[in-house]
Every structure is written in structure tokens, then in C-alpha cells.
Amino acid sequence: MIRAARMVLPIVLLLAAFASGQTGSPSVAPSSNSGATQSFDVKAAVDAYLAKMPAAERARSDAYFEGGYWMLLWDFLVSVFVMWLLLRFRWSNGMRNLAERITRFRPLQTALYWIQFIVVTSVLTFPLTVYEGYLREHKYGLLNQTFGLWFRDQMVGLAVGLVLGAVLMVPLFGLVRRLGKTWWVWGAALMIVFFAFVGLISPVYIAPLFNQYKTLEDAKVKDPILSMARANGIPATNVYEVDASRQSNRVSANVNGFASTLRISLNDNLLNRCTLPEIETTMGHEMGHYVLNHAYKGLVMIGVVIVIGFAFLNWGVSFALVRWGERWDIRGITDVAILPLAVIVFSLFFFLATPVTNTITRTMEFEADMYGLNAAQQPDGEANVDLLLGEYRKMDPGPIEEFIFYDHPSGRTRITAAMLWKAEHPERALPEEVARPMFQNRVTNPGEI
Length: 449
Ligand SMILES: [Zn+2]
Prior knowledge:
Residues about 1-25 and about 445-449 have low confidence and may be disordered. The two termini are about 20 Å apart. It is built from 19 helices and four strands. The longest helix is centred in the C-terminal third of the chain and has 35 residues, at about 295-330. By secondary structure, the chain is mainly α. The structure holds zinc ion (ZN).
């Protein structure tokens, strides 16, 4: 979503990552010698769950997810290349000159530059966007949309990026012009406030542009969920259903919003494909995000990364200006034409910081998993949902791979946590969940576009 904005503002990606959380984790080692586990072999139970995933399904998921590691690199390289084009051929200062000819009012100049910038970069990166967001997703059977519908979502995303980007860029360059050397500290603060602002308006003004949200109505599902919500001190009206099937078959749920707009949403794929114990454990997880205040803690932790990022930005931009500023005809850090350079430096920072930002979200996701296990008490339901998430997330990575690339815990990590919990609560075992085949209702045609 909002892919155009993502290419130019890696930050928006971070926002999306922590605003639409789902489940995460540091690794847990199964221990076989604690008192209650003697009659239950955790490792064997985990392996039995993993074996429920057919080999072909596993191979597809692994290929998709590992391909995503390369996409991370390609996104970075293509973004840098496009920004370099803008600098090298002076398109950036051409856009600035045009903005200056249209108006003498500097905030408006910044906004006009931004509009040209996001349109030009979106066009130049469009082939990669189509490959990554449309062709590749279809190849792995993860997208339901025709090209027309998909393209419509891209255009909406571009419009959102255009407006939100201007909301950020105009005051940011205003700060740079007024505050001189300390601009980067205030710039970081502004960015953090911007995040909170986008989080606040997202459920009400942005998410409905892409999907329909309505309150959950089915009493068979709603009643147990509302019961669990009351037991966990959560306002009952905060449970929504979203038509995620408009885009894909992915099973998911999330907590989004900020402060007064914070809400829990279940997607319709989850409701259609999962049993009540599976839905309950997912809701328990989302309630964990809510009760543990992950939206605020995430903002603080990502905020620290942003401050460091701005310090790096300040250094990197000064470094490059001394060397190439004249050749690119950039007047200094107060000149909006510097934006492509700033994107290069910022992209480099967040590319290198990927394991850090992933670990921040993965750790909160694992906390939410533990909360969900205790709230819903459905370890077998949890393990089955973890298998479904394995349709788009490699189930069984190595520990370093998980540390670097996973913004949620891997399937093995999560199922292990569920089985450790089950070992201590044998009365909560559900044999029908253990026996339930999970990949029979896969409705996509891999390879078909
Ligand atoms: Zn989560």
C-alpha cells in the first residue's frame, strides 16, 4: 500500500510496519525437562504441526519470502538510482526552478516541488512497482486483484502520498530554513509527530480509501470476542471487520490507529478460513498489542531510530554537498532540490537499520503472542493460524535470518511458544484443531496472472 510514498520515504514503510502489526518474537527454545511437560514432547508437537504444511506449499512460501530479501535490496538500489538521475541530470533543480517561477511564497514552492517529485519518481519506479506489487504477488497466488483494481489502489496511494508528503515537507523545510545547524533535531521531532498524526487519522481517513470497515456482526464470533475484550479491559466497540479479500487471501488482523482512533480489525479471510479457537487466539494477540500499548512504545522506539537517522542525514547531506553540490546546482540544505540526495542518505540508513527496526516490531509481536496465548488459551488454534501465516512468511528460517529479515516471529518460533504454553496447560488441548488440515481451501492458482 501507498507504494509511491514508500519509494521516496522509507519512513512511511516503517509506519505501515508498526501501524499494521500482526504477530512477532525472539526465539524460544523448547525445554523438555520442566515438570509439567514430561508427558508432552514439545519438539515433536512443533514438528507435527510443521508437517501439516504440504511440501509444495512450503517451497512456494520459502521462495516468496526469500525473494523478498532480494526485493529489499532492489528497492533500495532502484530508489538510489532514480534519485541519482534526478541529481545528475539536474531534473531536481529544474523542478525547483519551475516551482519558483509559479510562486514566490516559499511553503507553496516546497509543495509544488513535492508534487513534481513524487509524480516523476512514481513514474520512474513504476516498472519495479508492477513487478513487486502485482506480477510477483500473482505469481505466488497472493493477490486477488485484476490489474485495473490494483492500479486504482496505486493511484489512491499516490494521492495519499502526495497530500501527506506535502504535510510533512512544507514544515520540514520551514524548520531547516529557520533553525540552521540544529535543524535535524527538530526535523526528527517533526517526523515523530507526523507519524503519530498519520496513525491517528489512518483508520478514519486513509484505510477506508482501500477497504471497507464495519463492526463485527456475526454473534457466534462476536460474543466470545467481546467477552474476551471485556475481560481484558478493552472497549467493546473497537472490534472491526475489514474486507481484505478485496486484495488477497491472506489471513490477518491488526491494531491500527492512535489514541482516540485506536481499533482492532479482523480481516474477512480470517473469519472465512478459520475456526473459532483460531479467531480467538488471533484476537487475543491483537488485544495484547492494545493492552500493552504497543502503538506508543513502538513510536518511542522507532523515534530513537529516527533521531539517529536524522543525525546521519545531516552528516551525509553535508558530506555530499561539499563534493557535488555545485555540479548538481543545489544551493544548500535549505534548497528543496536537495530532496533526492536526502532520500539517498535516508534510504541507506534505513536499509542498514533493517535488522533493528525488524527486531523492534518482532519483539512486540512476540509479546502479543504471549498475551494472546494467555488471554484466549487456544494453543492449538494459535499453531494453526501460524501455519496459515506461513503462506506468505517462511516457516522455518535460521536464527540469523530471522533476526535480520523477520518483522514478525517465524512460524516455528510461534508454534514453539504455543506448544510450550500447551505443555503447561494440557487441559486446553484441542485434538480436533491438531487434526484439522489447513491447506485444503487454498483458492488461488499459482502461476496464473
Ligand atoms: Zn501483531
